[in-house]
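Exercise 7b. Backbone tokens:
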């Protein structure tokens, strides 16, 4: 008579959570979007005060690009979409991209 033994091995599964990645919302300079509009977007959509919005707008104008804010992906995507929709509705060609931080 043969006896078979079944071996049960217990393993412990550990899940390691990492904080969500951060994404930059980057504005690019163009020749048709007024600086005043960029400042308005930075204040209304991105929550900057007038001074920091003006500083970011001048950086965009001088260097060709500037970071409007850094967020988790979903928020960065939403703010980018809001900015593009508003920009297009006003006839501006403001370019916005997301970049992983």
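Sequence design result:
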């Amino acid at each position: 008579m043969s006896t078979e033994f079944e071996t049960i091995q217990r393993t412990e599964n550990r899940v390691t959570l990492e904080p969500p990645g951060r994404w930059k919302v980057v504005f690019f300079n163009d020749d048709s979007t007024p600086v005043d509009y960029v400042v308005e977007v930075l204040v209304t959509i991105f929550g900057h005060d007038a001074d920091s919005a003006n500083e970011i707008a001048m950086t965009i104008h001088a260097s060709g690009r500037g970071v409007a804010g850094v967020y988790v992906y979903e928020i960065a995507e939403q703010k980018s979409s809001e900015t593009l929709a508003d920009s297009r509705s006003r006839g501006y060609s403001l370019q916005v991209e997301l970049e992983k931080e």
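Instructor comment: The radius of gyration is 24 Å. The longest strand covers residues 65-72.
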